[in-house]
Specification:
Layout: E1 4-7, H1 13-21, H2 32-41, E2 44-50, E3 53-62, H3 70-76, E4 83-90, H4 99-112, E5 117-123, H5 129-137, E6 141-147, E7 154-161, H6 165-172, H7 192-197
Parallel strand pairs: 4-5
Antiparallel strand pairs: 1-2, 2-3, 3-4, 5-7, 6-7
Length: about 200
């Protein structure tokens, strides 16, 4: 069974909201307005598709965005340029099947051409050992811990240096090659079938 990582469609937001809020205490709950804000403003908002079904999603923001997360602000106080993974959620029936690794390979490819650091957090008060091990195995290191003022939850703040970034910036500057895997994520609207027929 192959996993396709692709940009999210607007008609999928209700399903993504349900997926997020069924993920358990390790993922902060969302409401529809907040998720819609992510859809409108995120630099990266993609889903994993298995057999035509959404198996997970990842949302992230570059350091130049106006994202209002306290964890994003924590990284902003320490680094002038970074990409922040706000959340990754994988459906329970797909966990352990490589969906998370597929997401992280995709978001790293997106990040390394644009920012020197990939950042995220793991909530450490909710049986987070599997998540911390996953991130450690993927090359993240803890830079510190942060207690989120909005809910009092403590997070392990993780960073990963993008080793390719200096060479890419030296070689291409702000003018990246026009190749599909480097394209900025699009903001697809509506159902793909409707867009194909122009309805």
């Amino acid at each position: 069974m192959s996993t396709l990582i692709r940009d999210v469609y607007e008609h999928e937001l209700d399903s993504i909201l349900a997926l997020n809020n069924a993920a358990g205490p390790a993922i902060l709950a969302l409401d529809a307005a907040r998720l819609r804000h992510f859809f409108d403003t995120a630099d990266y908002f993609r889903v994993a598709e298995n057999d035509g079904n959404v198996a997970g999603f990842l949302v992230g923001f570059g350091s130049g965005s106006a994202h209002d997360s306290s964890n994003f602000a924590w990284f902003g106080e320490r680094h002038p340029s970074f990409f922040y993974i706000d959340r990754i959620v994988v459906a329970s029936r797909r966990r352990g099947g490589g969906v998370g690794r597929a997401f992280y390979a995709d978001v790293q490819s997106f990040t390394e051409a644009r920012w020197p650091l990939l950042t995220c957090e793991v909530l450490i008060e909710h049986d987070s050992d599997p998540a911390r091990l996953f991130h450690g195995a993927f090359g993240f290191q803890e830079e510190g811990q942060h207690v989120m003022p909005e809910n009092g939850v403590r997070a392990s703040m993780l960073v990963k240096k993008m080793c390719s970034y200096p060479w890419i910036r030296e070689r291409y500057g702000d003018r990246l090659p026009d190749v599909p895997w480097l394209l900025q994520p699009r903001r697809p609207r509506g159902n793909p079938a409707e867009r194909a027929t122009g309805t």
